[in-house]
Design a protein that fits this description.
The protein has one domain: Thiol Ester Dehydrase, Chain A (Roll). Helices cover about 25% and strands about 35% of the residues. The protein contains three helices and six strands; from the N terminus they run ααββαββββ. It has helices spanning about 5-15, 20-25, 55-70, and strands at about 25-30, 35-40, 80-90, 95-105, 110-120, 125-135. Strands 1-2-4-5-6-3 form a six-stranded antiparallel β-sheet. The longest helix is centred in the middle third of the chain and has 17 residues, at about 55-70.
């Protein structure tokens, strides 16, 4: 089942206007069932004293991509929170952009498990991580647009 395109557009706007993603210069570039792509346009504010991107920036984009990869399977009234994040830094980066591609490996009613790979703009693998996410009842995003088309209801995968 595919998400309602109007919902996806509204979701991207909500994320773009949220304080932390805005602060990090991070955007939700794409989201579909079990997949998400998150991009950070790197700037001086992302660097640590040695002039390379801070590990926390890489952890943030992995955390974010794994979250959104699991998000669309949730009922509209439910939210998610990360309860475990594991990652490996594979290469440093100093400029350009980070692209994280998240995949939900195991969606669940109470626990989801996702992974993300982070690439630079030349598709070099920068980092890999996994995340365990806990479903939070009644903590969903309140949107004015339905997540799925009414004609899709009852056709969940």
């Amino acid at each position: 089942m595919d998400a309602n395109p109007a919902y996806v557009d509204a979701l991207k706007t909500v994320v773009a206007q949220s304080p932390y993603p805005s602060h990090m210069r991070m955007r939700l570039a794409n989201i579909e069932m079990d997949r998400a792509e998150v991009v950070i346009e790197l700037d001086r504010c992302h660097l640590q004293p040695y002039g390379i991107v801070h590990g926390g920036v890489v952890a943030t984009i992995i955390d974010t991509a794994t979250f959104w990869a699991a998000f669309l399977r949730l009922p509209e009234k439910e939210g998610l929170v990360n309860v475990d994040l594991k990652l490996n830094y594979l290469r440093s980066i100093v400029d350009g952009k980070l692209i994280a591609r998240g995949t939900c490996l195991r969606p669940g009613r109470s626990i989801c498990y996702s992974e993300a790979k982070v690439f630079d703009q030349d598709e070099n693998l920068i980092a890999h991580g996994t995340s365990t996410l806990m479903v939070l009842p009644d903590k969903g995003l309140q949107m004015d647009v339905p997540k799925f088309h009414p004609s899709d209801w009852g056709n969940e995968q």
